[in-house]
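> call design_seq(struct)
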């Protein structure tokens, strides 16, 4: 670990009062998306096509 990293962490703790890591945005799939993914044999490209089609259908209506 670099000494500069530790100093950066200490500066964040001092200025922001935060001593834990910031939470990151996460991708979460709905149960329906998991079903589509399972039916596609785990093919993420097929899930992507399905989701794009669903969004296009909503936008067209």
């Amino acid at each position: 670990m670099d000494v500069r990293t530790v100093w950066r962490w200490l500066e964040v703790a001092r200025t922001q009062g935060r001593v834990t890591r910031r939470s990151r945005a996460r991708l979460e799939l709905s149960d329906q998306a998991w079903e589509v993914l399972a039916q596609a044999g785990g093919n993420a490209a097929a899930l992507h096509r399905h989701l794009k089609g669903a969004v296009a259908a909503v936008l067209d209506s």
